[in-house]
Amino acid sequence: MSYKALYRTYRPLTFGEIAGQRAIVRTLQNALNQNKIAHAYLFSGPRGTGKTTMAKLFAKALNCEEGLGHQCNRCTNCNSVNDGSHPDVYEIDAASNNGVEDVRQLIENINYAPIRGRYKVYIIDEVHMMTQSAFNALLKTLEEPPQNVIFILATTEPHKVIPTILSRCQRYNFSKVSDRDITKRLKTVLETEVIPYEEEALKLLVSLADGGVRDALSMLDQVLAYSRQQLKLEDVLALFALTSKLEQLNLLRAVASSNVEEVFTILSGLIDKGVDVRRLTTDLLNLLKDALIYYRTENTDLLNYLRKEEVQELNMMFEIENLNMMIENLLKAQADYRFASDVKNIFEITLLKIITSLNQDTMVEKELIIQKPKVKTAPSVPKKDEKHAIVTETEKETIVEEQELPPFMTQSREKLEKRVTETKSEIVKDEVKTAQPVPEKVQYANPLHNEGQVIELDDDTIIKILTLADRDEKLSLRNNRWDDLALMAMDSVVGEHANVLLNGAPYALAPEIILVEFNFDQYARYINILENQKIMQDIIERLVGRRIPVYGLTHGQAVSFARKYRSMSQIQKLPRVKSVKEELEGKFDYV
Questions:
Q1: Domain contains 10
Q2: Residue 108 structural domain
Q3: Are residues 190 and 206 part of one domain?
Q4: CATH number of the domain within which 219 lies
Q5: pLDDT tens digits, residue range 182-207?
Q6: How far apart are the C-alpha atoms of 180 and 166, rounded to whole Å?
Q7: How far apart are CA 208 and CA 112, in angstroms?
Q8: Does the model's pTM come out above 0.85?
Q9: Is residue 30 scored above 80 in pLDDT?
Q10: pLDDT of residue 590
Q11: Residue 293: partners with Cβ closer than 8 Å, 6 or more residues away
């Protein structure tokens, strides 16, 4: 006897064995139990999701000798449906029997009573392949079929079925089967066949199936034939020309180090192995998504692809804005693949764009969106003398050398170091004159408040501020004066507050308020605590020459407002305002 494929051998025999599609199963079972049987059904959805199988199970439930709705798989009718020999269940392939003559022949046979069962069931697969004439010939019969005749139409492209046919059917939309349900089904098959398997290999196979149970079983059949009845990860990778997680991580390590030669060496090796670039792009997105989830939650239970040590390594290599940038570029590449004949070229260009973005030494502003730098300073501020702010050599190194300054400050790094040295020298001279002792710990005259009333501005107010913002003044502040915050951070009066501002960048500067963008949400929260406003405004007054409120935005909020502003600008819906004084009234009255 010839070999029978797994997807045929393990075709579900009852509704309970169906993987997924629970809503459809429940609806059909209820219809059978209540004897509310429609005369025509349309099953639509992606391939391999159980449309034809469901149609056969429904036909079996209609004709089982134990009663309507049963599927005993013991009686003559059930067994005949299972092996495809039941005289009252007709399975027609519309791809090859799609002409008007085929439909007329079908209509002639419809008028005869069922031979063995209660109902005659016509299962028309790939019904969208029928011609217009064939559809028209079927219309009248489908609307008013003879008693005990039921049509079940199956298609992957319901939009190609004419509306007059659709309106005459009860429609059931099959969705892709969840990974969990496919995994459960494959494990049942493997355990029944007593086949050893690796969890990682099974997980990868389910991912490749993309929601199709039949595809999953067909690929499992293929791997078992290749690996001599065992399911191993290395065999799945080799058979389907996929990259291992180690190879994907090595590629990301090379990207993080900006080693273009190594990146292309790795990529060339993968291409030589026949790796699918589209699949590689998807795999990289999965890893970056895991890294982004862990970055925000630090919950390993939410990770699907990476282990804790792997995701921690990725988060050491990339800051959160880098992860977002890489994901956006790879998603764009995925979209471009659909229209390109050479996807390899697009992927290589995408990697080069990512490396270039990671290497940028200056901030790139696109309208209002600012790509923020890596900032590795902790929320705590450097130690300073209470009275004279004398800085030790170690503390100076922490402030100037160990701290990665924002890109717009690197341009004046030498100037800043010189100013710090000069300031230290002057302070030391003053210390010699006054002979005041230096305390070991800094006691700030105005400590930063961690809790208190939080200021909140609504979206409309933010858009109005952006409308009034002066771009040139903001750029001047960012490039010429913002680095003064590093010196203010040494001051015992305003040091803590200045250090918070130093970790941000000007986002918008209007006549009556300044918005500051932060990568870390906590810094934005510090800014918006009402009790911190007095010192924040003191600092900003030194920088811009006028006393105005300071409002903090997270990077996510900044991007969102920039998009909203751009959209409103394109449709000419931006508000026409001369002032936001009324909106700010009373919000920044610090205690």
A1: no
A2: 21-173
A3: yes
A4: 1.10.8.60
A5: 888 888 888 888 888 888 888 888 88
A6: 32
A7: 46
A8: no
A9: yes
A10: 61
A11: 299, 302, 303
Per-residue model confidence as pLDDT tens digits over 97-123: 767 777 887 887 887 888 888 888 988
- pLDDT-derived band at 375 (thresholds 50, 70, 90) equals very low
| Residue linked to tokens 């405004």 | 537
| 3-class SS letters over 306-361 | CCHHHHHHHHHHCCHHHHHHHHHHHHHHHHHHCCCCCHHHHHHHHHHHHHHHHHCC
Q: Which two tokens stand for residue 307?
A: 């282990």
Give 145's DSSP letter.
P
Q: Are residues 264 and 231 in the same domain?
A: no
User: What is the DSSP-derived secondary structure letter of residue 125?
Assistant: E
Q: Which residue has the tokens 């049509």?
A: 151
What's the distance, CA 47 to chain centroid?
24
Residues 221 and 253 in one domain: no
Q: Which residues pair with 515 in a beta bridge?
A: 508, 551
The pLDDT score that the predictor gives to residue 443 is 53
Number of domains present in the structure of the chain = 4
Rounded Cα distance, 176 and 428, in Å: 72
- The full length of the chain comes to 591
Give the CATH number for residue 295: 1.20.272.10
Integer CA distances (angstroms), 81 to 74, 117, 208, 576, in order? 11, 11, 31, 72
Residue with tokens 């007593």: 194
